[in-house]
Amino acid sequence: MATEFHNLQELRHSASLANKVFLQRDYSEGTTCRFQTKFPSELESRIERPLFEDTVKRLNIYYAEAEKMGGQSYLEGCLACATAYLIFLCMETRYEKVLKKIGGYIQEQNEKIYAPRGLLITDPIERGMRVIEISIYEDRGSSGSCSGSSSTSGSSAR
Amino acid sequence: MQQLGVAEPMRECEYSQISTRSSTPMETPYKKRTPKKRKWQAFPGRNKFYCNGRIMMARQTGVFYLTLVLILITSGLFFTFDCPFLSVQLTPAIPVIGGVLFVFVLGTLFRTSFSDPGVLPRATPDEAADLERQIDVANGSSSGYRPPPRTKEVVINGQTVKLKYCFTCKIFRPPRASHCSLCDNCVERFDHHCPWVGNCVGKRNYRFFYMFILSLSFLTIFIFAFVITHVILRSHRQGFLNALKDTPASVLEVVVCFFSVWSIVGLSGFHTYLISSNQTTNEDIKGSWSSKRGKDNYNPYSHGNIFTNCCAALCGPLPPSLIDRRGFVQSDTPLPTPPTNGITMYGSTQSQSHMAAATPLMQSEPVILTDEASLPGRTSLGGPCSGALPLGGQPTPPTSTPNLSCDNGMLPLRNDHSEALHHHHTDGVHHHFLTPEEAPSPPGMLPCGSPLGHSHTIQGFYNPASQDSLHEDSVRGLVKLSSV
């Protein structure tokens, strides 16, 4: 785990940022948090569509879970009101718990799928939940198309 | 194994550190010396922060202190002068219930006033550039004096809703969000800006606001009723005038409560209606979902029944603050710098190569970035921008002045697109209702100013001093709300 993260940092600091793609929010179901699953054209050469769509769909599911209005959230809300919201000094809200889960999921996706392809997903919470920002990196010494081949040649050397 | 394979060829190519970090080597030692700033210190909106970012309020807090003083004095007088008599004559439960109500009122007041109402952080420069690119593609790149308005249409549960572009925050506002001109922030599910609470009322603090006015109604009625009871009980023994002489404080309490009851109870009733129909004050004032607009007009956000709407508004999940005010400013996080003398500047430390690849709108930024030696954006504005400002300012046609003001939403004088309605409750409870300003066509690319100068010009007309006086005028000149 430590070496993988170390390499994510290296990716950020040693590769050069070529472009950023922004996935906007999908408001067709109201104000609940959902992101568009449309596959951006800039990523066509970098990542397979099903992998990408899977990630976004998973994120949407997590956000829906955070904002779900069911028995548990009502209970939490009533309990909080009854304790004059002091209870939040001790425990974190369900929303915050799910956000932590999302942060972990994005980290894992970055390490396993996106960083090896020269991509990086930024957690939407750092962008005000407006966009999913995907940074596209490329090697300085080679063009964009070569970065894919250098990673594959590197992996084949192993 | 795979990761090592990726790392090795990159290391061989000797990447320079300049690309993704702060630009000049000179900058880095300086940055090491400066202590890390917290994000609230670099916050671009017009908010005040206390307790190292834990407390967040609007800029004008005078009326909030008035509210606090009124509540404290009236309750204090009640507990000191009326409660001893009443607890002996009637029941000691009276001060207890009064105490509970009082604590609840203060708690909800502080929670409403001090918390983040749901401020949307401004777009990072990359996001803004990306949006600009998309807008240009959508509208065609030719820009006359009046390019088409920047709106996006979205269908929500069958209703077509227009999303407007906010020029200050450089984002398309989510549905139900609005830009508060007093706080200069876009707020999610913006209800209104309440001077009495000293903050905007939005998604994150609406339930506290509602609890506050509800409990304050109960407290006011409670105090009013029991003070009257007290005076009546005393006058049975001593006669009315003697009773008043013995408890002069009661007179003051009755007067304050009498005038407050109408407005506060009325307001509670109004907000109960809003909650049960899942509307914001904005939407209700504009009649966005009223059936008068059309047969098929309905509220797409309503859950269908009153109970669900109430539960959702009051007991639903509370989203966390998006602005992370106590976090530290990362050197590689692009942050819009706070306005200095009304000029907003985006101090990004992103790679120069990326900037060069960005749209023409941001082309001037690399120039300014390299001038930045120290604080992001603050001191470097002198050179390039002062040149742009007067140039950009002069050729602005008078017709675009409403557009400039709509950027900040500050001038209530706009006639054609102005939707700033002011409501004044009968007895002095003003709520500065700011409906979302329509975004009419933005001023096009000004011929001589750089595109960045274009945005500067918009902000350059933002003069804090005149804006404050305008705001004061608009707060003073309120229209009575007859319906409540």
Automatic annotation (TrEMBL), chain A:
Tree of life domain: Eukaryota
Instruction: List each copy of the Golgin subfamily A member 7/ERF4 domain by range.
Output: 21-133
Q: How does it sit in the membrane?
A: Lipid-anchor
Q: Does the keyword Aminoacyl-tRNA synthetase apply?
A: no
Compartments, record wording: Golgi apparatus membrane
Q: A cellular component term (GO) from this record?
A: palmitoyltransferase complex
InterPro entries, alphabetically?
Golgin_A_7/ERF4, Ras_palmitoyltransferase
Could you tell me the keywords of this UniProt record?
Membrane
Which biological process terms from the Gene Ontology are attached to this UniProt entry? protein targeting to membrane
> According to its UniProt record, which protein family does this protein belong to?
Belongs to the ERF4 family.
Name recorded for this polypeptide: Golgin subfamily A member 7B-like
Q: Where does this protein come from, organism-wise?
A: Salvelinus namaycush (Lake trout)
UniProtKB/TrEMBL annotation, chain B:
Record's catalysed reaction(s): L-cysteinyl-[protein] + hexadecanoyl-CoA = S-hexadecanoyl-L-cysteinyl-[protein] + CoA
InterPro entries on file:
Palmitoyltrfase_DHHC, PFA4/ZDH16/20/ERF2-like
Q: Which UniProt keywords apply?
A: Acyltransferase, Membrane, Transferase, Transmembrane, Transmembrane helix
Pfam family of the protein (one): DHHC
Q: Keyword Transmembrane helix: yes or no?
A: yes
Q: Where would you find the membrane-spanning parts of this chain?
A: 63-81, 93-110, 208-232, 252-276
Task: Provide the E.C. number(s) assigned to this enzyme.
Answer: 2.3.1.225
Q: Which PROSITE patterns match?
A: DHHC
What cellular component GO annotations does this protein have?
A: endoplasmic reticulum; Golgi apparatus; membrane
Q: Which GO terms describe its biological process?
A: protein targeting to membrane
According to the UniProt record, what class of enzyme is this? transferase
* Residues in Palmitoyltransferase DHHC domain copies: 162-286
Q: How does it sit in the membrane?
A: Multi-pass membrane protein
Q: Which PANTHER family match?
A: PALMITOYLTRANSFERASE ZDHHC14, ZINC FINGER DHHC DOMAIN CONTAINING PROTEIN
Hey, which family's this protein in? Answer: Belongs to the DHHC palmitoyltransferase family.
Q: What is this protein called?
A: Palmitoyltransferase
Organism field: Salvelinus namaycush (Lake trout)
Its taxonomic path starts at: Eukaryota, Metazoa, Chordata, Craniata, Vertebrata
Q: Which gene encodes it?
A: LOC120060295
